[in-house]
Amino acid sequence: MRVLQRYFGSEIARAVLFVMLALLVLFSFFDLMGELTEISKGGYRLQHAFLYVLLRLPGYIYEFMPIAVLIGTIYVLAQFASNSEFTIMRAASMSTVMAGSILAKIGMVFVALTFLFGEVISPYSTKLAEKVKISTMGATIAQEFRSGLWTKDLVRANGLDGEVTGSRILNVKEVLPDRSLRGLKVYEFDADFHLAREVTAARAEYIGKNVWRLFDVIETAFPKTLASKDMTAINSQKFVSRDVVSEITPDILSVIFVDPDRMSAYDLAAYTRHLADNKQDSDRYNIAFWKKITYPFATLVMMALALPFAYLHARSGGVSLKIFSGIMIGLVFYLFNSLFSHVGLLNTWPAPLTALAPSLLFSMIAFGAIRYVERH
């Protein structure tokens, strides 16, 4: 059993690595072609484009891991079948359950790798890639929005703790690469949703612990019982600087511009809680969170889908035909995974069901195929 485990593991690992390298080279080439149109904008040069594409590779490894596992495993099992190795293994008392157990143990290694790339490496490298591109191009993150960036948080009695006393809407004209803000407007409302205060600042810097330091501040206070023509009751003051405690941090602001599929489950959970606390729609990020939790286990489903190919002899098609079938199955799974996310969002399906549906569907197909080839 241990000998077979090592043999299966080494052969599948080499095949998956080869397939992954092929996929990375292909999609890196497409990305680089797309980045060539950005060269010469600001300080963005060819070396920056190469670095940007390189930093995006961990995200592709995470996305393509199940597909690479499927194709690599099909290739190895098809080779075993064509060389009659799998037949000899079965004659030596290796049952389908035992073969499935071997593949499941190998699959758990790929599950761990997928988690590693999805939770640690890919989110960090993606943020670094965007930072490289923005800083070299001299661009600002929010410049593409006509009215700037809008977000919302709660006003509490003791900063981040205590009773909720109102809500706050923030409008930022530009988010700079150093995570500072330019052209900030803050609208604070009391518990009855009356406008209590308006704050404008030329710029703002994050000094840590949920504290923003605003500069060149104009603060206007509106009394709750303001008569329609009594403008003298409005109090306006100017400050050189002013500190504001807010749930909004640079990390939360950066989330708005990052594809949810490239974020870690931890960041998605934090941002989903923030949206829920502020009565904002969090369905998209909730689905992305559950996909992040369940997606790595899709490698086990791909292993199960590959197992029936070991029972197909050479007369059922050559290795190349089986690999082509694996590529098609992988593409269909990838498309289904994306499709269910959009359909679930449109139909407000439960996020766990939306995330699990493609894997459950392909699991049933895999077990049905295993039973079929075992009987025939």
From TrEMBL:
Query: Where mainly found?
Result: membrane
Q: What is the membrane topology noted in the UniProt record heading this document?
A: Multi-pass membrane protein
Q: Which GO terms describe its biological process?
A: lipopolysaccharide transport; transmembrane transport
Please list which residues make up the signal peptide.
none
Keyword Repeat on entry: no
Q: Which domain of life is it from?
A: Bacteria
Give the InterPro entries listed for this entry.
Answer: LptG, LptG/LptF_permease
Alphabetically sorted, this entry's keywords are:
Cell membrane, Membrane, Transmembrane, Transmembrane helix
Put simply, this protein is called LPS export ABC transporter permease LptG
- List the lineage, top down: Bacteria, Pseudomonadati, Pseudomonadota, Betaproteobacteria, Burkholderiales
